[in-house]
Input
Amino acid sequence: MLLFIRENMDNHYQTLKARQRAERDRYPDNLGLRVHRALSWLNRAEQEADSDSRFIFLWIAFNAAYATEIDDRQGLSEQASFNAFLRKLHDLDHAKRLGEIVWSAYSGAIRVLLDNPYVFAGFWDYQKGNQTEAQWQQSFHAAKKAANHALATQDTPKLLAIVLARIYTLRNQLIHGGATWASSVNREQIRDCVSIMGELVPAVIEIMMDSPGTLWGDASYPVITAAG
Output
């Protein structure tokens, strides 16, 4: 399944951009800016052969759609605003695209990711001396238990929040210089995160385009026209 998705990942931008051009005059300004920016980064990601770069561009595309400050000091899955965003997407996803990604296409990759301590923030807190070994292992097992419960109850937003928290840890490693480019030690997590984000980001953009009347909030860093 992952191989099939990789081969077809490059098809999303062109389809979504054609739709955006046809509909954008009907979008509120805040939605229009979010979609425009997210599509620009999705386009760049889909042109990229390098996995590390592709991952970074996909995360920027996702963040452009979300368009809210994400605080590194707080776990992503614990942020109420982020969880509310995922719940809103899920409620608006009448075609069940998010569920298809989570429950069908990526059940294998997600399970592997949840078993990987190197994308768990608590593991790195332990390495820094901010947690004991017992503390990080307890929180690791608790997060896996929560994910398994979400799987069992088909709670898509909850599972997505947990998965995206792991992906965010990998994002921090790369963006803050905590990993080597093309490193052999993180290829598995890069591969799985690129595969997940390569399908999740287009789905998020499409759900937002389906719901122009929904209040998405002001985009971060609005376009400012210089005074004459």
User: Anything to note?
Assistant: Residues 1-8 have pLDDT under 50 and may be disordered. Residues 187-210 form the longest helix (24 residues). The chain has one domain: 2-69+91-210.
